[in-house]
Specification:
The protein has 425 residues and is α/β, with parallel strands linked by helices. The chain has 22 helices and 11 strands. The strands form 3 sheets. It has a 5-stranded parallel beta sheet with strand order 9-8-7-10-11. Strands 3-1-6-5 form a 4-stranded parallel beta sheet, covered by helices on one side. Helix 1 packs across helix 6, helix 7 packs across helix 18 and helix 14 packs parallel to helix 15.
């Protein structure tokens, strides 16, 4: 049994890792459950987001999956028999051998184990190629959004593109039977497809507070972010008490501060994106509101979100379900002509860029800034000329776009380009 924590993308990683572990331990997997989080505040379960029967069908030849515990096990007190496993019992990105040594004996003795708060608890190397293949099969093939999400996701994309554009493998995988047809394009041959850039601007209050950076808001901003940390990140507060503090300016030099909307606008302009570019903005409730967003929206007025493209009644079924809202962003980002991220370490950016690598056929570019290099460039704002800025930003992004095989220890979800994942027999 697995109870996954976090939001949509953390849960997705947990599901894929759980499939691999079930295979490793030769165990039956109970359909994963999602823990309720005070941060995400979403009661959604597996079947609210993903197609259960499809998932079980695709994985059936590899792992036995059931919807709930057998009746004779339901009365077991899993904690009292010692079968409850938390993050404290298994280190982050543990090796398969750790599970064979610590978990398998419990499973054989008690017949059941329950991973509580399971997330990034399986390493990427060294892991047998068969387990890596299962992770890829789960992530890129078995996890399909439910029709409700696919249908509204398709509607969202059609409104961004203004009309139906050419179909792609990304559209097919994410939208299923709701994939836009090409009929309207055929009816009006004078109009080419409306291209758009999707931007994951990771500038929500949780990211800002957790970063420990400063963004020019003075003492009011410091107090506000400090209060948010104390309320939402108690473990971070405890860790800070035991460690030597790093100054906000040093954090910025190290590339550990989220890009502001203004910095994101500068990067896009430096790359040559014109004022008329259509930009889909993933996420919502940017920290600082409209005033903070103004440098971006004034430079790129054709900026849209799911909230501006969909009506209140169309969004109503998703309003109180942050993971389902995030699924709409996932679809819009993955199927975009260009995907730009400001924080390559976030789970959404990681999973979306991996999807585009897997299904995009090298025609789905991901723009990933090196924040440490960008911080050095931006620190010269009083002396650097625009032409020099453009050259350095373009070189930074081009180096990040080079096609690379997955290197040792790197996420197979973000970098699927390796034999066990992308080479199909």
């Amino acid at each position: 049994m697995v109870s996954a924590n976090g939001g949509l993308n953390q849960q997705r990683v947990a599901i894929c890792n759980a499939v691999a572990l079930a295979s490793l331990l030769n165990a039956t997997l109970v359909l994963p459950r999602f823990l309720y989080s005070n941060v995400w505040k979403d009661p959604s379960q597996f079947g609210d987001i993903y197609q259960e029967e499809y998932f079980m069908k695709i994985m059936k030849d590899d792992v036995n999956i059931i919807k709930e515990l057998p009746s004779h096990m339901k009365s077991l007190d899993i904690e009292s028999i010692g079968s409850l496993i938390t993050d404290a019992d298994i280190v982050k990105e543990a090796k398969p051998s750790d599970y064979l040594e610590k978990v398998l004996p419990l499973l054989l003795r008690n017949g059941v184990v329950h991973f509580l708060g399971f997330g990034n608890r399986l390493g990427f190397d060294p892991v047998p190629s068969q387990l890596q293949r299962l992770r890829c099969k789960c992530n890129f093939h078995a996890l399909k959004f439910v029709p409700k999400i696919q249908q509204v996701g398709s509607l969202l994309i059609r409104r961004i593109r203004k009309y139906d554009a050419s179909q792609s493998m990304l559209d097919k995988q994410l939208l299923g039977e709701f994939m836009p047809s090409s009929a309207s394009k055929m009816n009006d041959p004078t109009r080419g497809p409306s291209r758009y850039l999707a931007l994951h601007l990771r500038f929500e209050v949780d990211m800002i507070a957790y970063s420990l950076c400063e963004f020019g808001g003075g003492e009011d901003e410091k107090r506000e972010l400090k209060a948010y940390r104390e309320s939402h990140f108690p473990l971070l507060i405890e860790r800070l008490k035991k460690s030597k503090p790093i100054s906000p300016s040093e954090l910025r030099k190290l590339g550990r501060c989220p890009l502001t909307p203004e910095e994101a606008a500068l990067v896009l302009a430096g790359l040559g994106f014109k004022r008329g570019t259509y930009i889909y903005l993933a996420g919502s409730h940017m920290y600082g509101g409209e005033s903070r967003m103004y440098p971006l929206t004034s430079l790129y007025p054709n900026l849209v979100t799911k909230e501006t493209l969909l009506t209140d009644s169309e969004l109503a079924p998703f309003r109180n379900f942050s993971s389902q809202m995030a699924a709409l962003d996932f679809i819009a980002c993955a199927t975009s002509d260009v995907f730009a991220m400001t924080d390559s370490g976030s789970q959404l950016s990681s999973l979306v860029s991996g999807f585009r690598t897997y299904y995009g056929g090298r025609r789905a570019p991901n723009l990933r800034p090196n924040k440490k290099r960008l911080a050095a460039i931006l620190s010269e704002n009083s002396t650097i000329g625009w032409n020099s800025f453009e050259d350095r930003v373009r070189k930074m992004i081009e180096e990040g776009q080079r096609v690379r095989a997955r290197s040792f220890g790197r996420s197979i979800y973000r970098q699927p380009r390796c034999p066990e994942c992308m080479c199909k027999s």
